[in-house]
Amino acid sequence: SGAKVVVIGGGFGGATAAKYVRTWSNNTIDVTLVEPNANFISCPLSNLVLGGSRRIEDLTVPYDNLVKRHGVKLVRDIATAIDPQKRTVTLGNGTVLPYDRLILSPGVDFLLDEIPGLKRPGAGDRILHAWKAGPQTVALRRQLEAMRDGGTVAISIPVAPYRCPPGPYERACQIAFYLKQAKPKSKVLILDGNPDVTSKGALFKKVWAEQYGGMVEYRNQHKAVDVDVATQTLKFEVQDDVKADVLNLIPPQSAGSIAVKTGLATANKRWCEVDFLTFESKAVPNIHVLGDAIQIAPGMPKSGHMANQHGKVAAAAVVSLLSGRPVDAHPLYNNTCYSFTSDKEVVHVASVHRYDAEKKTMVTVDGSGGLSPAPNTLEGTYAQSWANTIWADALA
Ligand code: FAD
Question: Which numbered atom of ligand 1 lies nearest the CA of 307?
């Protein structure tokens, strides 16, 4: 058709959308993917780098196949501005890319104004979030390796919604898994901004009590409001200060800054509201927003699994819209989040979501979904297969 689609962000949502717009248009739509990173690095399984059973290389997938097999034009740069009237994207190097439809999957950025200490020069190098897999993941692992036996690792969790609800609790398991072997006198302190464990609560609490007896301590209602970097001390809205040897501070999040800057983040100035039939922004026409950046419907987590499915629904809609065909009115998708409680044992939570035409939103299908009864090694193999499969679906 000669139509032009630009995709911003080569993560779970954007890579999937880029591949499937090409595939489902029989390679007739021109797709340019803008992504600053040389390779895709998966957040799923990245907690296992902290636990020591995976290396970052095990989670790294090149973009080559999108280019070679699917004919996606890959531009290694950052999108700095979008002009919705002219329908153009400006890149860091000044190039201007025109589009008929824009697909935006920029993931999250951090609301540093809510933790002012993190804005001081150098703070971000010392107090790590490791909430985007890559150099920070490796650096946090080094901090754990350098810590003395008997030290405290504190994980600060923001008030929901944030990327990957069970992720911080999986991380607590992985850090405890490492410390139990290497520094058994140490402690993992979970400082949760929420009233309770946001996902798989009973399962995680049982693991902490039984498998890592005494090492993991959970404290709810600990909303971090500042950090003193020099003394590695966290400050909270209500509770007393906490000092830690390793401080993993996961700040509150919003849609990636390019989405906010373009006026797409209409919900709480943080998340982008979309029409779930097409993922087109409710604020700005011809821009489709996917993944963690969107305002989710109840029960829909901010997960890679979800972003992959957003990518397919949006790709199908974009191909239809650019070809003058009707858009599918019945999107149905599922979600599975696996969490590793050790190097081999896993628990999962699953759900199914359908479009409700009356409510014009996604709803959880009655009676769908489920939860593991207990951590088990069979699901450990499933979880690794899930990762291999979704990386291939998005990138191969
Ligand atoms: P991302 O995958 O983050 O992709 C965004 C991309 O956009 C990035 O590559 C970024 O470089 C690029 N970008 C941003 N701004 C620009 C710009 N201006 N110009 C160009 N490019 C830009 N999910 C699961 O389903 N299962 C799990 O087991 C799981 N475990 C997790 C564990 C951890 C520790 C974490 C942190 C997350 C986990 N997740 C998991 C969540 C999952 O990683 C996210 O939900 C998913 O990455 C969201 O996809 P996305 O496309 O929205 O964003």
Answer: 49
